[in-house]
């Protein structure tokens, strides 16, 4: 397996990573053959996986613009992945050049590539940290230096919580982050679920099996289980819905059926 020049040293390129698989679904170029192979296997069960990722990204961009309309100009994007076109800082700083964005990821390729993309932009930063350790994120030099936690922050947890198993206690991690944020802060969240997937659950379970095999379990949660992440937040209209139904800019009915898989929502800290 040939090692690309951009691959950070010390990375085992034979081991797939969820952020690089996601990059592949979105048409990015920062993925290895091991990632592409896992992605193709997963797509044998759910051919529309790229559509799900695109719907997640489209929701993220609408939600970022919503946050800016609400006067929130600080963003903390955890599980940010590999920067592709239309990332949070591009959307936010196009509207407000003063907007500040801190990305967080634990994939070394995502971190290295983000550093390269963000070079020279002093209102953005990337932290190498894990959602399971909120204090490491909150106490990082990048967060304390760039974000004012006494003012509202938009916390993005887009397509990341479903990679935390119940044993990781994701609800506590989100609650810890929530408690550190000022009132008026926003939670922008998407989560995978069997609900809305246009194939039988047994078939979709094949995709879940692929992620389990690469030791990145994909945890499908019910609507009620996803709603629990919004404890302490008031969900804004239209509530917790399929991604294309969250404040669409065009008729969601025109979307691919796969786009309606899972849930998206925005909550405001009371």
Compute the number of strand runs.
Answer: 7
Q: What topology, given as strand order, has the largest sheet?
A: 3-2-1-4-5-7-6
What oligomerization state is this entry in?
A: single chain
* Count of individual helical segments: 10
Radius of gyration: 17 Å
Helix content: 25-40%
What does this structure look like?
With 270 residues, the protein is an alpha/beta fold. 37% of the residues lie in helices and 14% in strands. It is built from ten helices and seven strands. The protein has helices spanning 18-25, 33-45, 49-69, 88-95, 108-118, 134-138, 141-146, 170-180, 201-213, 223-227, and strands at 74-78, 100-105, 124-128, 154-158, 186-191, 233-235, 263-269. Strands 3-2-1-4-5-7-6 form a seven-stranded mixed β-sheet. Helix 5 (108-118) links the parallel strand 2 and strand 3. Helix 2 packs antiparallel against helix 9 (201-213). The chain is globular, with a radius of gyration of 17 Å. 47% of the residues are buried.
Feature tags:
270 residues, alpha/beta, 7-stranded mixed sheet, 7 strands, globular
Can you give me a brief rundown of this structure?
With 270 residues, the protein is α/β, with parallel strands linked by helices. 37% of the residues lie in helices and 14% in strands.
Write the layout of secondary structure elements.
Layout: H1 18-25, H2 33-45, H3 49-69, E1 74-78, H4 88-95, E2 100-105, H5 108-118, E3 124-128, H6 134-138, H7 141-146, E4 154-158, H8 170-180, E5 186-191, H9 201-213, H10 223-227, E6 233-235, E7 263-269
């Amino acid at each position: 397996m040939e090692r690309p020049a951009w691959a950070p040293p010390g990375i085992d390129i034979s081991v797939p990573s969820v952020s690089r698989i996601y990059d592949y679904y979105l048409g990015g170029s920062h993925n290895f053959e091991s990632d592409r192979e896992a992605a193709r296997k997963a797509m044998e069960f759910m051919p529309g996986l790229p559509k799900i990722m695109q719907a997640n990204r489209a929701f993220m961009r609408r939600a970022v613009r919503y946050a800016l309309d609400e006067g929130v100009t600080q963003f903390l994007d955890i599980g940010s992945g590999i920067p592709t076109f239309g990332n949070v800082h591009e959307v936010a700083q196009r509207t407000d050049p003063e907007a500040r964005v801190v990305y967080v990821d634990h994939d070394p390729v995502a971190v290295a590539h983000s550093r390269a993309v963000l070079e020279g932009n002093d209102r953005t930063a990337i932290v190498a940290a894990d959602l399971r350790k909120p204090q490491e994120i909150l106490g990082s030099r990048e967060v304390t230096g760039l974000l004012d936690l006494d003012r509202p922050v938009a916390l993005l947890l887009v397509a990341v919580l479903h990679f935390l198993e119940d044993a990781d206690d994701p609800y506590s991690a989100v609650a810890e982050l929530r408690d550190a944020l000022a009132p008026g802060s926003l939670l922008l969240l998407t989560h995978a679920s069997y609900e809305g997937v246009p194939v039988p659950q047994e078939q979709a379970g094949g995709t879940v099996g692929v992620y389990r095999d690469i030791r990145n379990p994909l945890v499908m949660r019910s609507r009620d289980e996803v709603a629990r992440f919004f404890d302490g937040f008031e969900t804004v209209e239209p509530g917790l819905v399929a991604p294309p139904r969250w404040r669409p800019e065009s008729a969601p009915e025109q979307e691919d059926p796969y786009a309606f898989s899972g849930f998206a929502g925005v909550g405001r800290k009371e």
